[in-house]
User: What shape does this take?
Amino acid sequence: MNRALKTALWTIAFAQFLKIPLKKWETGKWCWAHFFETGGMPSSHSAGVSSLATFIALKRGIRTVDFALAALFGLIVMYDAQGVRRQAGELAIRLNELAEDVMRLEQNPKETLYEKKQARLRERLGHQPIEVVGGALLGMATGFLSYVFARKS
Assistant: This one.
């Protein structure tokens, strides 16, 4: 596997791992399941594509087709992470609230209509803009470090 791809994959895993202590700091509870969830700080999507584009920019130059592809791919991924996917998450929040309102209106929590809906829709699908920026900065740092270490070896 080439160094650029290894850098991007390692960065994605690292960003996912960072969500665990950051959530602990925020909530006071350890939850290892955050490693496998989407959304949250930092955006692993942004971190991965930014590390790839940074590594390619340093290795091949910013005037290459390689960098142009990585940068454009990265911009699309980051836009999607904070745009479309975030909107889907906000829609899930509204649908979950609506289901709770229906249950309250029924005034009978034992009603079979609500019992069939066991799981709430996942609400953390996308990222806030600050999470995307945080991921992008993390990715640029890891892409740079990977390039530096590759030159030394």
Q: What stands out?
A: The CA atoms of residues 72 and 105 lie 49 Å apart. DSSP finds six helices and no strands in the chain.
